[in-house]
């Protein structure tokens, strides 16, 4: 089917879907969750065959997927997310102030590109689709070629839910074509109003460029990866070295490093404590087990990138596992100095897989230079005691400028789906650091503020009517009230 026809169908469905009540949209999300749950066994089995991920991981991810669908359903049933604002008319003013009412409304058809590393939570029925449907947007999903059968099963669950809730059949559509031209056509089509993407920097940047070339540019919310720098401060290394080595070895190798929040860069000031930590971390990595990566393309890229970094004279191997089987990853931690890191910008690039680079900085000043040299990140982590956080306050403040999420004394792997979460960050981690792709705030990507001036009450959306029939929190004449 031609992309133009698919997008026209999405636009037509949007004209109906954008007008349905929040309760109906919530029912759709909840029904999708139910349909996915009914297919749990076959979906987990299929995803395991296509991605090499273990059943326990996939079952947990599918539960996360159904839970975030329900979370968005709860959000829109409560309703205050539309940010209704009312400034009543004041005819006595000079000049007279008209009646002004504002709320968030959906932008239109959204294109979602499925991710390779999360076949459920960031793919066909994942957070991007859930947040767009919650906002009132229709969706066209481009399934990821790494797990096509899994993607189709998820879409069939969505289609069944759409039918059961009596919504337009084209509220969600699925495109399985693998070609880059298909992705370009989806972004370039005039009916497309927004794009969600999780993947490589090159892929996200290409979509951003396509969107900018349109007669009417549109937003692209691309999450493109991160090295997620972790700074180990002195007192923490002295008092917690063995525990930290085990914790971060587990984080580096979790899921064979195939998480966008994998701790790919470890930083510290040169000391005996840092040397001891490096030795213990290397030992913990060596004790870990190799495992298969998601697919052959990711494995090949990891093997090539790892070999390239370890071939550099300025980089030494701290620890690695025994040589893996042909299709398995080879977990490793390498080490270099702050001076060498600053001279070679390629050392700051993400290597997607179970790998991390430990950088020994000469002093606090060099550590600051290394942090300032980094581009935008999804996360940055502070590993420090109360003593450290007092001594290195300025460095910690610098860390907060780098990323969408700053973490204290926890590994960065793991992204909670909740209202406070920010899964985003300055470019090139994402294309727009003002937004998150995880958590309920992700809905704001698919809406725009609209102001209604001097409308009669009967013409207004329910969220803006005088009687507040939805019972939501609103800002009325600068006071929050129901």
* Straight-line distance between termini: 48 Å
Number of helices: 15
Total beta strands: 17
Structural category = alpha/beta
**Main β-sheet, spatial strand arrangement:** 10-11-12-9-8-13-14
Give the rounded overall mean pLDDT: 96
Strand content: 15-25%
Unreliable runs: none
From the alpha carbons, calculate the radius of gyration and give it in angstroms.
24 Å
Shape call: globular
Quaternary structure annotation? single chain
Percent range of helical residues: 40-55%
Q: Describe the largest sheet.
A: 7 strands, mixed
List key phrases describing it:
single chain; 482 residues; alpha/beta; 7-stranded mixed beta sheet; 15 helices; globular
List the helices and strands and how they pair.
Layout: H1 3-17, H2 22-38, H3 40-51, H4 55-78, E1 85-87, E2 100-106, E3 110-113, H5 127-135, E4 139-142, H6 148-164, E5 172-175, H7 180-188, E6 194-198, H8 201-213, E7 220-223, E8 229-232, H9 234-253, E9 265-269, H10 272-286, H11 296-310, E10 316-320, E11 332-337, H12 338-343, E12 355-361, H13 364-373, E13 377-383, H14 386-391, H15 393-400, E14 403-408, E15 447-453, E16 474-476, E17 479-481
Parallel strand pairs: 1-16, 3-4, 3-6, 4-5, 6-7, 8-9, 8-13, 9-12, 11-12, 13-14
Antiparallel strand pairs: 1-2, 2-15, 10-11, 16-17
Explain the overall architecture.
This protein has 482 residues and is α/β, with parallel strands linked by helices. It contains 15 helices and 17 strands. The strands form 3 sheets. It has a 7-stranded mixed β-sheet with strand order 10-11-12-9-8-13-14, sandwiched between helices. A 5-stranded mixed β-sheet has the order 15-2-1-16-17, with no helix packed on it. It has a 5-stranded parallel β-sheet with strand order 5-4-3-6-7, with helices on both faces. Helix 2 packs across helix 6 (148-164). It is globular, with a radius of gyration of 24 Å.
């Amino acid at each position: 089917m031609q992309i133009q026809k698919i997008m026209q169908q999405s636009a037509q469905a949007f004209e109906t879907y954008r007008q349905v009540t929040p309760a109906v949209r919530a029912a759709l999300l909840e029904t999708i969750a139910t349909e996915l749950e009914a297919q749990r066994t076959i979906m987990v089995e299929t995803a395991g065959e296509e991605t090499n991920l273990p059943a326990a991981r996939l079952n947990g991810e599918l539960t996360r997927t159904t839970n975030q669908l329900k979370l968005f359903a709860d959000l829109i049933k409560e309703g205050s997310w539309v940010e209704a604002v009312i400034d009543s008319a004041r005819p006595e003013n000079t000049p007279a102030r008209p009646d002004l009412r504002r709320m968030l409304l959906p932008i239109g058809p959204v294109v979602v590109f499925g991710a390779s590393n999360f076949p459920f939570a960031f793919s066909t029925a994942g957070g991007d689709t859930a947040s767009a449907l919650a906002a009132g947007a229709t969706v066209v999903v481009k399934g990821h070629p790494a797990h096509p059968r899994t993607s189709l099963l998820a879409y069939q669950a969505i289609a069944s839910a759409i039918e059961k809730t009596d919504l337009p059949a084209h509220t969600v559509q699925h495109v399985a074509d693998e070609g880059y031209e298909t992705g370009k056509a989806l972004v370039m089509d005039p009916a497309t109003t927004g794009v969600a993407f999780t993947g490589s920097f090159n892929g996200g940047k290409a979509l951003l460029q396509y969107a900018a070339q349109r007669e009417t540019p549109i937003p692209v919310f691309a999450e493109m990866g991160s090295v997620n720098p972790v700074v180990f401060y002195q007192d923490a290394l002295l008092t917690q070295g063995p525990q930290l080595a085990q914790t971060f070895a587990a984080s580096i190798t979790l899921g064979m490093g195939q998480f966008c929040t994998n701790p790919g860069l470890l930083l510290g000031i040169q000391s005996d404590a840092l040397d001891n930590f490096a030795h213990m971390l290397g030992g913990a990595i060596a004790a870990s087990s190799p495992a298969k990566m998601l697919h052959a393309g990711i494995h090949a890229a990891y093997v090539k990138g790892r070999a390239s970094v370890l071939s550099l004279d300025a980089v030494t191997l701290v620890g690695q596992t025994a040589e893996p089987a042909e299709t398995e990853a080879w977990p490793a931690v390498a080490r270099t100095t702050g001076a060498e890191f600053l001279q070679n910008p390629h050392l700051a690039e993400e290597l997607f897989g179970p790998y991390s680079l430990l950088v020994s900085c000469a002093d606090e000043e060099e550590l600051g230079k290394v942090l300032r040299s980094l581009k935008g990140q999804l996360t940055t982590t502070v590993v420090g005691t109360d003593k450290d956080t007092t001594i290195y306050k300025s460095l910690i403040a610098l860390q907060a400028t780098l990323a969408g999420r700053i973490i204290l004394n926890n590994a960065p792997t793991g992204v909670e789906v909740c209202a406070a979460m920010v899964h985003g960050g300055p470019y090139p981690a994402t294309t727009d650091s003002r937004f998150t792709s995880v958590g309920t705030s992700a809905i704001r990507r698919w809406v725009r503020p609209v102001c209604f001036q001097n409308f009669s009450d009967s013409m207004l959306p329910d969220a803006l009517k005088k009687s507040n029939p939805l019972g939501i929190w609103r800002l009325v004449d600068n006071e929050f009230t129901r």
